[in-house]
């Protein structure tokens, strides 16, 4: 029978919004791999009464409770003490934790103060997760069939401690293995993807879930079985079905962005790209150059906001600018072909549009964008996009969607 888990992030700075609680996402993903269900996420400040209430509630309804934060040396770091009060466990000093703590301070050339010593106090019967990257050890305690884990707050300490010590410990409480594969989809919206995938989304094992991202959709497929091999075997027919339904709108598996796919494709084919951008203001170039190794495939980027720059630098004919306007199919194509000649690259991309909030017209409303991709092979493809929804403050959304559509056009050309 699967265990149910609950995550508690401790720290007033989280409640006040001073820092983002990234632990819940990370730990949930890791627990899912173990086949452990996560039913609750809770954040609580450094207040003894509220902390005690949250811990009592969690222990009462969940099999496994994981707390992060509140293990420091100061007076408001009370996670460990409060857990011990709730579970009725005494504390004792762990000699190994104290030794490691002393060595840590010696290594960084700082004096260890008396209040640090309290971090070496651990509950009786606890499994200790030693901390090689900080001072506070983590720990796990079992009482009356409940399991409580305490982990340090800093991600640089929590993540390696969980990977190296807590994850193997928790694997002993898992009776199943979850295998998940995530697919990025571009060019099919969430509602259309839901219709296309249909019965797949109603499956119980394997399961399929849709997540709307900015201008794209993430599809996560998950199978649960006794072993990782068996779960992977169960998952493959569903993966095949996904590709048969969505085709090349699926641009990558277990990747984070279009640029993570396009840059390796360019490198694989030994091709270089150059960009000419107006409404996106260099966003496409930034996306490409954010990927390691992009220097091998990116020649240059021109941000040509002014018509004069389009004409003088990219050699967009003045006649096109006057006859069709800067935001037009003809100008986008001329920008792509112009930057292709200017850079000597293999592929040139031109983007021109109206990101708003002003500048739109009945013929070309805000969100009208033309994207053109030209190649040395003599092919130039230009598309018109309507990326606005008539809402306020859409400028950044339109710019982002424009850059992503440009990347997708390059991807399709490469394929």
Can you walk me through this structure?
This protein is α/β, with parallel strands linked by helices. The protein has a six-stranded mixed sheet with strand order 2-1-3-8-7-6, sandwiched between helices. A five-stranded mixed sheet has the order 14-13-15-16-17. A four-stranded antiparallel sheet has the order 10-11-9-12. The radius of gyration is 27 Å and the shape is elongated.
Q: Which key terms come to mind for this protein?
A:
single chain; 40% helix; six-stranded mixed sheet; 415 residues; five-stranded mixed sheet; alpha/beta
From the N-terminal CA to the C-terminal CA, the straight-line distance is 46 Å
Task: State the helical fraction.
Answer: 25-40%
Q: Which sheet architecture does the biggest sheet show?
A: 6 strands, mixed
Rg from alpha-carbon coordinates: 27 Å
How many beta-strand runs? Answer: 17
β-strand amount: 25-35%
User: Based on the structure, what is the oligomeric state of the protein chains?
Assistant: single chain
Strand line-up across the major sheet:
2-1-3-8-7-6
Note the overall shape.
elongated
Low-pLDDT windows of residues = none
Average pLDDT across residues? 93
Tally of DSSP helical segments? 15
**Helix/strand/pairing class, anyone?**
alpha/beta
Helix and strand topology:
Layout: E1 4-10, H1 12-15, H2 23-33, E2 37-44, H3 48-61, E3 64-68, H4 79-87, E4 91-93, H5 95-108, H6 114-117, E5 121-123, E6 127-129, E7 138-143, E8 146-151, H7 155-170, E9 177-185, H8 190-197, E10 207-213, E11 216-225, H9 228-246, E12 250-253, H10 259-269, E13 273-277, H11 283-289, E14 298-303, H12 307-312, H13 318-324, H14 329-343, E15 347-353, E16 368-375, E17 380-386, H15 395-414
Parallel strand pairs: 1-2, 1-3, 3-8, 13-14, 13-15
Antiparallel strand pairs: 4-5, 6-7, 7-8, 9-11, 9-12, 10-11, 15-16, 16-17
Helix pairs in contact: 2-7, 3-4, 10-15
